[in-house]
Design goal:
Structural class: alpha/beta
Number of helices: 12
Helix content: 40-55%
Order of helices and strands: EHEHEHEHHEHEHEHHHEHEH
Oligomer: single chain
Largest sheet: 8 strands, parallel, barrel
Number of strands: 9
Radius of gyration: 19 Å
C-alpha cells in the first residue's frame, strides 16, 4: 500500500431551510477548514437544474473559494466540457490562474451533469460528444500554450498559463482517453463504483507518458462520513441516502436532515440501488474509517482520495473532515 493525498469534492449542497447564500458561505468555511488541515485541493462540480446543488456556475464559485483561501488548490471536479466553448473555458480558467497563480486545477468531464432536457438547453449535441470531447481537451491545451500566440484565435487570459488538466470519468471511456493523452485521471466512485477497478487497470496499462505527467496519476472520489462513533456516522449518512433516493425518484429537492429509520423512506428496490451506487463510502468512527480506507487503498493504490461528504449539519461536516484527516495521517504514518 502506498501513501496518498486527500482532497475535497464539494457540490455546494443546498439544505432544507437554508438559502443558497448560506450554502456558498458554508462551502467557503469548509474550504478554509480543510486548508488548515492540509488537504491538497478543493474541487467543485458542475451540475444543472437541481435544487439540491448550487455549483452550476462552477468557474465563478471557484473564484469565490480561491479568493477566500490562501494555499489550497481550487478547481473543477469537473467542468462538463461539452456544455461549453473550449475558448470560453480557457479564458475563464486563465483568468482564475492569473488571479490565483499556481492554485487552479481544471478537471473536465463529458457528461451533462443534468437531465436530457436541460442538456439540450445548454446547447449540447449528443451526436458528436464522444468525438468532440477529446478535440476540446486538445483545444484547451493549445489555448494554454505559449505557441498559440501566433494563432488567429487566442485565449487572453489563458495563454501561457500553467493549468493542469485532469480527465474525469464514471466508466471506462475516459480511462482510455486519459491514458492516451498522458493526463491524470479521476474516477467518480462516489456514485458510479461498478467500473472503477477496470477503469484504473485500463488507465495504468495503457498510459502514455507526457511532458507534464511522466507518470500516471489517479484520483478516486468516494463518500466520507465520519463521526465520534459508528452509530452517529450511520445516522448522519441518512442525509446522503435520502439524496440518492430523491435522484431515483427524480425529485431534486434540497438535502434533508438525518432520520432514525430509512426503511420509512425507501423501499427494498430503492435501498438496493442506493447501496450499490454508494458501495465505496467510508462511514464510521476514526478506527472504522482507518480500516475502510486501508482496505480501499490496498486494492486500488491511488495517488489521491477525494472525499465528498453529504452531511446536513455544517459543524458535523467540518468534524467529519477532521476525523478523515486523522485517519489518513495514521495510515500514511505506517507506510
Amino acid at each position: 500500500m502506498k501513501k496518498f493525498e486527500i482532497s475535497v469534492l464539494d457540490l455546494a449542497p443546498v439544505k432544507q431551510n437554508k438559502t443558497i447564500h448560506d450554502t456558498f458561505n458554508d462551502s467557503l468555511d469548509l474550504a478554509r477548514a480543510v486548508e488548515k488541515l492540509d488537504y491538497k485541493r478543493f474541487w467543485l462540480a458542475e451540475h444543472h437544474n437541481m435544487a439540491s446543488i448550487a455549483s452550476s456556475a462552477t468557474s465563478v464559485l471557484i473564484g469565490f473559494i480561491a479568493n477566500g483561501t490562501t494555499k489550497i488548490r481550487v478547481g473543477s471536479g469537473g467542468i462538463m466540457l461539452p456544455n461549453h466553448s473550449s475558448l470560453v473555458i480557457a479564458e475563464q480558467f486563465g483568468t482564475l490562474e492569473s488571479l490565483f497563480p499556481n492554485r487552479i486545477d481544471l478537471g473536465v468531464g463529458r457528461a451533462p451533469g443534468t437531465d436530457g432536457i436541460t442538456a439540450r438547453a445548454l446547447g449540447r449535441n449528443p451526436m458528436n460528444i464522444n468525438q468532440h470531447f477529446p478535440q476540446q481537451i486538445q483545444e484547451l491545451q493549445r489555448y494554454f500554450s505559449v505557441e498559440n500566440s501566433a494563432s488567429l484565435v487566442r485565449a487572453i487570459p489563458g495563454e501561457g498559463c500553467d493549468i493542469p488538466i485532469y480527465i474525469l470519468g464514471s466508466s471506462t471511456d475516459s480511462a482510455w482517453l486519459a491514458a492516451e493523452m498522458g493526463l491524470p485521471y479521476a474516477f467518480a466512485g462516489h456514485f458510479a463504483p461498478q467500473m472503477m477497478e477496470t477503469a484504473f487497470e485500463i488507465y495504468h496499462q495503457n498510459y502514455q507518458p507526457s511532458k507534464e505527467f511522466p507518470q500516471p496519476y489517479t484520483i478516486a472520489c468516494v463518500n466520507g462520513i465520519a463521526a465520534e462513533t459508528d452509530e452517529e456516522a450511520k445516522k448522519l449518512s441518512t442525509t446522503l441516502y435520502q439524496a440518492f433516493v430523491n435522484l431515483i425518484r427524480n425529485d431534486r429537492k434540497p438535502y434533508a436532515p438525518p432520520v432514525d429509520d430509512m426503511d420509512e423512506i425507501w423501499n427494498p428496490m430503492e435501498k438496493a440501488h442506493v447501496m450499490q451506487m454508494l458501495h465505496y463510502s467510508f462511514t464510521g468512527g476514526e478506527e472504522t474509517i482507518i480500516n475502510q480506507m486501508s482496505q480501499f487503498q490496498k486494492r486500488f493504490q491511488v495517488n489521491e482520495l477525494m472525499i465528498t461528504s453529504h452531511i446536513y449539519e455544517h459543524e458535523a461536516r467540518l468534524k467529519s473532515y477532521g476525523i478523515i484527516r486523522k485517519a489518513t495521517d495514521a495510515l500514511n504514518a505506517g507506510l
